[in-house]
Amino acid sequence: MSHTVTSDQASAVLAEPTATYDVLGGGGVRLHAAEWGNRQGRPILFIHGWSASHLCWARQLEGRLAEDFRLVAFDNRGHGMSEKPSDADSYRDPRLWADDLAAVIDQLGLDRPVLVAWSYGGFIVSDYVRAYGEERIGAVNLVGAAVMLKPPAFDHIGPGFLGNAPDASRPDLATNIAAIRRFLDVCTAEPLAPDDWSAALAWNMVVPPAVRGALISREIDSDDVLARLSLPVLVTHGRSDTIVLPSMSEHVLDVCRTARPSWYDGVGHLPFGEDQVRFDRELADLAAAVN
């Protein structure tokens, strides 16, 4: 079954948001945030991954979820339209990531949002819960999410990432362009449509290579957070993911007592793009169940 993301499903250009924000995150870093959808609905807060942008959620932000939910997305520090500190310490301190997420929740007045954390976003949610607890969030959707980063073995991180991230973090422009092109080619089980692929290349190249390297230079173990979570956790993962291996989500399911799986056969690292209809339906069900 093909899950090719076609350009007629959604435009590569996201519609204008209903509001945009400059959020002061950890250490005073300026974060770009925006929202779409139903202002009166349950908030859903989307957290993108390594070297990405809030634009990766375009289908969710413009789709049926917008009818019922307040949809908020932001660019992580060092990414997209957010500020990009040049020092590595701005990306290695877990408290700064926690403070970023707390700032978006607080400054936008999000009432117990559902956190949708893709890939590196799993680290950010873990950083947040460790620092702030879970009282201000309603549920978590981990999407191809990473929860541990342990060099040099890099357990549960796949060849699609390990084979490309080092070159993507080098300063030579030709080298890191080639690495990001390879990375995008292995992110999905079926090829992205040309408009989607070129948009993804563009938002990746906005991220300085030194930022990409700094993000993966810390050691992370989120088991302490996962073991004590009491709110609902939906674990969404493509069986064909070579970026963050399915074994990462198997580990989450072993450690987190409130986690339940949603496995996507024939899907890679982008289940929200490769099978949008199912992804949006399951996310809507998760959000609707928050009291």
In short:
The protein has helices spanning 58-62, 65-68, 89-92, 94-107, 121-132, 159-162, 165-168, 173-187, 194-205, 209-215, 223-228, 246-255, 271-274, 276-288; strands at 19-24, 30-37, 43-47, 70-74, 114-118, 139-143, 148-149, 220-221, 233-238, 259-264.
What features would you describe in this structure?
The structure is a single chain. This protein has 291 residues and is an alpha/beta fold. Helix content is 39%, strand content 17%. A hairpin with a 5-residue loop joins strand 1 and strand 2 (30-37). It has a single domain (19-288), classed as Rossmann fold (3-Layer(aba) Sandwich). Strands 1-2-4-3-5-6-9-10 form an eight-stranded mixed sheet, sandwiched between helices. A two-stranded antiparallel sheet has the order 7-8. Pfam families: Abhydrolase_1 (PF00561). Keywords: Hydrolase. Residues 43-274 form the AB hydrolase-1 domain. GO terms for molecular function: hydrolase activity.
Set out the fold topology:
Elements: E1 19-24, E2 30-37, E3 43-47, H1 58-62, H2 65-68, E4 70-74, H3 89-92, H4 94-107, E5 114-118, H5 121-132, E6 139-143, E7 148-149, H6 159-162, H7 165-168, H8 173-187, H9 194-205, H10 209-215, E8 220-221, H11 223-228, E9 233-238, H12 246-255, E10 259-264, H13 271-274, H14 276-288
Parallel strand pairs: 3-4, 3-5, 5-6, 6-9, 9-10
Antiparallel strand pairs: 1-2, 2-4, 7-8
Broad shape: globular
Q: What fraction strand?
A: 15-25%
Largest sheet: 8 strands, mixed
| Helical content class | 25-40%
For the record, what CATH class applies?
Alpha Beta
Low-confidence parts = 1-11
Pfam families: Abhydrolase_1 (PF00561)
GO molecular function: hydrolase activity
InterPro entries: AB_hydrolase_1, AB_hydrolase_fold, AB_hydrolase_sf
Keywords: Hydrolase
